[in-house]
Design goal:
By secondary structure, the chain is α+β, with helices and mostly antiparallel strands. Helix content is 48%, strand content 19%. It contains eight helices and seven strands; from the N terminus they run H-H-E-H-H-E-E-H-E-H-E-H-H-E-E. The protein has a five-stranded mixed β-sheet with strand order 2-4-5-7-6. Strand 6 and strand 7 form a beta hairpin. It is globular. Bound molecules: adenosine-5'-diphosphate. Adenosine-5'-diphosphate binds next to helix 5 and helix 8. It comes from Sphingobium algorifonticola. This is histidine kinase.
Length: 262
């Protein structure tokens, strides 16, 4: 429990620091990108070589901006557009995307829980988070393997929570992403959510995938946990709060009350 507290405090501090820097960088990059755009217009098509230089500079600035977006996601400062979601539909809708990013040697299996509760979250960000997890899983399964995506309603009562899960009591939808890859030693698990922590080769990993997942899930009022051991594969569980509102209830209008078409 002491460790968990220290970990939470560390993530909070790192989040504030990176968030501040990312925010300022974002503003500066907006100036750079805007000015390059003006410069390019000003130039018209008078100088093809100069235009290429400007494009290269703009490209670099865009990539830097994408990176600061990921840092803002980690520090929970990104603007979210939450909506009421059926995670089963979302996962099912992503299967082509998953298969495409996994490659041929990896089998995709989805186990969608029946009567899954709804959650209130940003659709794009959740898709992005699941894609990040799938790509990590793929990277951990060099020889091929199985990626399982499972959804389930989870109701934590206090006893359960204090004993094991480190997730506050409540009702959640859980999305678990499991791979049969290399697994992670304890030292890697301890740092996996840190921004820029990566064990991948230079140019292969940014160390921002899991930090982005962490930031998004926390900003959505949820929790994310890693279960892994070297040689045993990895499971990452995302818990998102159950949505209790009625906003998306199917319309109750009886057929006979519907206006007749003309
Ligand atoms: P990146 O993928 O760019 O390295 P991440 O933040 O997504 O950054 O992951 C950080 C590190 O956590 C990875 O470099 C890897 O060591 C470890 N990791 C993440 N997911 C998995 C997984 N499914 N299996 C094994 N190790 C993983």
């Amino acid at each position: 429990a002491q460790d968990a507290l220290r970990q939470a405090q560390k993530m909070e501090a790192v989040g504030q620091l990176t968030g501040g820097i990312a925010h300022d960088f974002n503003n500066m990059l907006a100036v750079v990108i805007g000015s390059l755009d003006l410069l390019k217009r000003r130039l018209g098509d008078t100088d093809a070589r100069a235009e290429r230089y400007i494009d290269a500079a703009a490209d670099g600035a865009q990539r830097a901006a994408a990176l600061t977006q990921r840092l803002l996601a980690f520090s929970r400062q990104q603007p979210l557009s939450p909506e009421v979601l059926d995670a089963n539909k979302l996962v099912a809708g992503m299967s082509d995307l998953f298969s495409h990013s996994l490659g041929g040697d990896i089998r995709l299996e989805t186990v969608l829980g029946a009567g899954l509760w709804r959650t209130h979250a940003d659709r794009n960000q959740l898709e992005n988070a699941l894609l990040n997890l799938a790509v990590n899983a793929r990277d951990a399964m060099g020889e091929g393997g199985r990626l399982t995506i499972e959804t389930q309603n989870v109701h934590f009562d206090d006893r359960y929570v204090s004993e094991n899960f480190g997730v506050p009591p409540g009702q959640y939808i859980m999305i678990a992403v499991t791979d049969t890859g290399t697994g992670m030693p304890a030292e890697v698990i301890a740092k996996a959510f840190d921004p820029f922590f990566t064990t991948k080769a230079v140019g292969k990993g940014t160390g921002l995938g899991l930090s982005q997942v962490y930031g998004f899930v926390r900003q959505s009022g949820g929790h994310v946990k890693i279960y892994s051991e070297p040689g045993q594969g990895t499971t990452i569980k995302i818990y998102l709060p159950r949505f209790f509102g009625e906003a998306l209830e199917a319309p109750r209008t009886a057929l006979k009350d519907l206006p007749l078409g003309d």
